[in-house]
Amino acid sequence: VRIAVVMSGGSGRRFWPVSRKARPKQLVPLVGGKCLLELTIERLLPVFAPDAIWIVTRAEQLEATRAAVARFGDLTLLVEPVGKNTAPCIAYAATVAQATLGDASLVVLPADHLIADEARFRDLVAGGLAFVEGRKSLLTLGITPDRPATGYGYIRRGKRAEDLGGSTFFKVTRFTEKPSLRAARRYLGSGAYLWNAGIFFFRASVMLEELARHLPQVAAEFKALGPHIGRSDEPERTAECYSRVESVSIDSGVLEKARRTWVLPADIGWDDLGSWTSFAKYMDKDAVGNSLRAQHVGVDSEGCVIYADGRFVATIGIKDLLVVATDDAILLVKREDAERVKELTDLMEEKGLDNLL
Amino acid sequence: VRIAVVMSGGSGRRFWPVSRKARPKQLVPLVGGKCLLELTIERLLPVFAPDAIWIVTRAEQLEATRAAVARFGDLTLLVEPVGKNTAPCIAYAATVAQATLGDASLVVLPADHLIADEARFRDLVAGGLAFVEGRKSLLTLGITPDRPATGYGYIRRGKRAEDLGGSTFFKVTRFTEKPSLRAARRYLGSGAYLWNAGIFFFRASVMLEELARHLPQVAAEFKALGPHIGRSDEPERTAECYSRVESVSIDSGVLEKARRTWVLPADIGWDDLGSWTSFAKYMDKDAVGNSLRAQHVGVDSEGCVIYADGRFVATIGIKDLLVVATDDAILLVKREDAERVKELTDLMEEKGLDNLL
Q1: Coil/strand/helix, residue B205
Q2: Global pTM?
């Protein structure tokens, strides 16, 4: 049995003010009138039946998530009471898989990425699942880097390789944190490094074993939850489990420690839409380098990114400004400071402006 | 008979996007929840009965004007079919005055100025009207300058002075255009120059004589209209008159040419709210020099002027930006470029964006 687990519980704070707690980035129609979660589902549907696509969401996003995927029919929604990062999310999916399907091969992937070469992506997903079905290994998709990006973690692939169904799989020799520009240039030049995109393959049983080894607290909580899956006390037990489980990422918690981790290089036009600046390339362009999703008239204005969902924005003498406007909020930030949106949302949280987050 | 004529037909383009064709600057609640026209009426009411206050408006602003002054009861509204600058506006008021009241003393004043010392202003208005009642003169209020402003016309007062009721009136020796900064500094130092604020006093009969002398086309059109005032064909005749009359200001058309023009110096805390920048001083201030009429959270943001009428605006690393937001439009302009709003509205007009003007 093969299951695609779409991790859709992120808060998308870097896309504030369009991204909100109850309707985060992945649920906003950003590209061609569709939200990123929809695009992620559409990308999977040619190779997964709807009932083999599971979406992990958070309670506060459940309503908006249901609305966003209603047209796909009977997808399974796993609801986390609160977000506790990716390790509990994946432990939850693996636990449900083992409780309801015996064992299963899972591919887990974020809901908010764009992939240009979808056919190649689907081939890799099929190949990756076939790979983990044959052995007790974890597998991660490694994106072929096309620039010395400093915003991603990198995976160094080793020499040991196996071919299966037209793809070549490499043993991982190490995961690295976000590098300096100098290190990133070296990584790019070496040809041996790949970006960690947060797309993983494993059998449920194997992941649960690895969790028990490297994150015993997480493993124990979900082991206790297992027998209640599908029973009337499941929601209550899930809430208890999540109230106690530690918040930790699958990368630092398991992948980087596991000894049986493999990587499948993928050159698929991947984009994680990490900030408004990286989203600019999906917007309309005018003759002077403004990126627009807005009705715009500018006098001496260049290089701006203006996302106002059809609202009218006029600028005079403005260069390289990022403007994002919604019904109730306007964000203004120098384009080069777009990564600082989180500073702002943290400050808003401090000031008790939760209603705007 | 004394009449105050409030010229309220301006378009207030420099306050776009808050100021719109159908609801220009003077009809927007800018200060203490009141619009500038309301404040102008309130300033006059202690010395004029409501039926002695006439408001000249334009057809497209009539509805919003009525709504803005409804609470004052029976003010008289004179409706210009189209705006043709101040000379026709004043000719119209003088014509109506002569047709309905025989002769009258008029003070005409813009609807969109602020005056801090209202008691002194009212004393000057009473004094000015008394002055013109006694002679065949035009009189202008001359604002005592407190800085070398380059955005106003100046009036040079002569030596010849007359005292009346506690005020001193001076003969005007010349009107000047907006000066260079150097000239403005000289004017300020000399003590002999005053700002032309567009506030004028005259008897209706005297103004009509001066119009006949200096603007015969304008005078002839309104002379033809005179006999129809108060008759059933008045609206039709007024439309004809305005379709033909030339567009010209009373300053360049009459005041600067008339030989019997006097000036009454006024130190009354006058402010013409000429641009968003000059309006900033009536907004709330935060600790780092932002002027706010908005809910604002800033990270490293200073010296901004943000008018968003209660909307939430967040800024990161933004200095000296003017931000104006309404339901359907957002204006962004460097604070020092606030005078360039007209360039923008001209461009919008060219592009056929009339619905946003």
Answers
A1: helix
A2: 0.88
